[in-house]
Amino acid sequence: MGFLELLEAASMPVIQVLLISALGALMATQYFNNILSSDFRKSLNKVVFFIFTPSLVFSSFAKSVSLQDMISMWFMPVNVGLTFLIGGILGWILVKLLKPNLKVEGLIIAACSSGNMGNLPIVIIPAICNEKGGPFGAHDVCHSHALSYASFSMALGGIFIWTFTYQTLKSCSMRFKALEATQIIKAPNKDLEGNVDTPLLTGKDNESTAIEAAPLSYIQDSESQNIVQQDQFVGLKKENHSFLARTIEVLRNLVVELLSPPAIATFFGFLFGAVAWLRNLIIGVNAPLSVIQSTLVLLGNGAIPCITLLLGANLTQGFKSSSVKPLTLISIIVTRLFVLPLIGLFIVKAAADFGLLPVDPLFQYSLVMQYAMPPAMNISTMAQLFDVGNEECSVIMLWTYGAAAIALTAWSTFLLWLFSN
Predict the structure, then answer these.
(1) Is the pLDDT score of 345 beyond 90?
(2) Axis crossing angle, helix 303-315 with helix 3-27, rounded to the nearest 10
(3) pTM for the model
(4) pLDDT tens-digit profile of 177-233?
(5) Can the keyword DNA-binding be found in this entry's annotation (predicted)?
(6) Helices (H), strands (E): how many in the chain?
(7) How many CA atoms lie less than 13 Å away from 125 in the CB half-sphere?
(8) CATH architecture assigned to 3-174+246-420
(9) SS3 for 82?
(10) Exposed (0-12), middle (13-18) or buried (19+): which is 337, by Cβ within 10 Å?
């Protein structure tokens, strides 16, 4: 395939996403009578989450994934974990270099580490198979395997997002709210010279400034020292209790994610795909329960357009003003869409050279594209949940997804050329 043909094959799925997302964005404005209002988006998102997506996942897995395919995909959970780990490290480095406001720190780390493992891959990767002359073989086989890879990616991404990313944003939001409460309490007070205390939320050394500003005269006598020691003991107990509570909450969120409809559909899809007699019940022209598979396919077909419309509608919130600096946005875009995919490419190529991956180039393409995806939309949900950085999160999402239109096309074109040679 020539460069122009590769560019066309890579850009068509992205253009489709852009067109449908633009329609979703327009439907969320007054020009379309606010059809995709906030309340309607929540309801539609529930339908997609509980009905459309599980149907799509189960039907694709049961039809195309065998026991041998499951064994060959063992590297994908490792790969998804590496995207979160490496992205989290890069995000932490950005935080140390940029020194942003405390409520933006968690968003930076989350945006760099948590890619969109579900919505976009399940739209873009199968669509690659629809283009003529693609390097991944026959259309039907390619499309079926692409749906399986994207569905498995979505299930794995959900687990990591609702554990690693959830705890990252929660920890940063708690620190910000604690510091904000300190500022509210401290602001009306004056020191002995009558000077008003300065705000605590704008500098690098916020916490150390608060400690240095506290009066120390009350700890000079022995009675006060006993009080301090008792407070430290109580604080240590609270810290231990807090650690236990956080651990329990992480496990609870993991169990909840494992019991979510997409995850359950993934499990049963694997089961029906691996066990021959179960597979023969619903797959095939002569299958006695083939109507179940047909119904699930019909329901699953509604997942992709609804997901893409919701994506565009949710991004409209990013037009609100916020305090996110341009340098922060540029740093996140470069890290998430260019640096991380480059690292991922080296990891996948090294794994392939060591014989850890199947020969299937579509599988390797899917692994690298996991590193190139823009931030997960669930980050916005978590920001709303913790009520910290909502507007900032919307702005980050808007600009990263806008840049992703170019980055995904570029990476997809390069990978199609790489795996077609």
Answers:
(1) yes
(2) 70
(3) 0.73
(4) 787 777 676 555 444 344 444 444 444 444 443 333 344 333 344 444 444 445 444
(5) no
(6) 20, 0
(7) 31
(8) Up-down Bundle (1.20)
(9) helix
(10) buried
